[in-house]
TrEMBL record:
Annotated transmembrane regions: 36-55, 76-96, 102-120
Keyword Transcription regulation: no
Keywords: Membrane, Transmembrane, Transmembrane helix
Superkingdom of origin organism: Bacteria
Higher taxonomy: Bacteria, Pseudomonadati, Bacteroidota, Cytophagia, Cytophagales
Protein name: DMT family protein
Protein species of origin: Algoriphagus locisalis
């Protein structure tokens, strides 16, 4: 149960992280947003990133084996990175129609799955 909760929280966290880091590139298409200066865009991104932390910190606290969770620190980081890349790919394909998923992306994804396998192998 802790493993699923940790992963669900990491997915939510990384969704907000992707919006905070890259959403402003898409939001610039909105008339009111495109008029904002850099400082305002940074503040909007910080506001979104607050929600990232609201999910990331509990995910790490619940998931870390030092707190009774199922994952080592390294495993938590690898899970988080893979989730980040998957969320980013989905976001970029949906939000930015000019992005495409290519064979090299598929091959890279396979290597990521292999990396996860080796990090979890005893």
């Amino acid at each position: 149960m802790k493993a699923l909760l940790t992963i669900a929280l990491l997915i939510l966290s990384n969704t907000f992280m992707t919006l905070a880091w890259y959403g402003h590139l898409k939001f610039a298409e909105w008339k009111w947003f495109s008029k904002l200066g850099l400082v305002s865009v940074i503040l909007v991104s910080w506001g979104i990133a607050l929600f990232e932390y609201c999910f990331q910190v509990p995910a790490n606290k619940i998931g870390f084996d030092g707190n009774g969770g199922p994952f080592s620190l390294v495993q938590l980081k690898v899970i988080q990175e893979v989730i980040t890349l998957v969320i980013f790919m989905i976001f970029s394909l949906i939000a930015f129609k000019t992005e495409t998923f290519r064979l090299n992306h598929l091959i890279g994804s396979i290597f990521l799955v292999l990396a996860v396998y080796f990090f979890f192998k005893k």
